[in-house]
Amino acid sequence: MPKAMWNGAVLAESDACQIVEGNYYFPPEAVKREHLRPTDKRSVCHWKGVASYYDVLVDGKVNCGAAWYYPQPKHEARHLRDYIAFWHGVKIVP
Predict the structure, then answer these.
(1) What's the pLDDT score for residue 6?
(2) What distance in Å separates the CA atoms of residue 50 and residue 35, rounded to the nearest whole number?
(3) 18-20 and 23-25 as β-strands: parallel, antiparallel, unpaired?
(4) What's the pTM value of the predicted model, to 2 decimals?
(5) CA angle 55, 58, 86 (to 5 degrees)
(6) pLDDT tens across 39-92, in order?
(7) Where are the domains of the chain?
(8) Cα 46 versus chain centre, distance
(9) N or C: which end of the chain has fewer CB within 10 A?
(10) Structural contact between residues 74 and 48, judged by C-beta atoms closer than 8 angstroms
(11) For 64, phi and psi rounded to 5 degrees?
(12) Which CATH code is given to the segment(s) 3-93?
């Protein structure tokens, strides 16, 4: 079962991930929300839409903008709505 890990903590774990462009997108219910803090950061993907970001928090350490999701994806990416992906040193263990 794929897991997202950072700073010794499991951030998410699920058999229902969507893998897109090499990134594991975890279903919202599989993510431990206590490790996420919303940010104002946004980016745009030409086919997925506008991404929103979270900082990842574990044991007082912060990994800024290390998680992202698409709250209102374009039609082609609707299956990713609210699924959360990670980067910036967050390890995905397939």
Answers:
(1) 98
(2) 22
(3) antiparallel
(4) 0.96
(5) 45
(6) 999 999 999 999 999 999 999 999 999 999 999 999 999 999 999 999 999 999
(7) 3-93
(8) 18
(9) C
(10) yes
(11) -65, 130
(12) 2.170.150.40
pLDDT digits (tens, 9 = 90+) for 77-89: 999 999 999 999 9
Mean pLDDT of 1-18: 98
Q: Which residues pair with 81 in a beta bridge?
A: 70
Write the Ramachandran bin of 34: left for phi over 0, alpha for psi from -120 to 50, otherwise beta.
alpha
Residue type present at position 38: P
Residue 30 makes CB contacts below 8 A (sequence gap 6+) with 12, 13, 14, 16, 17
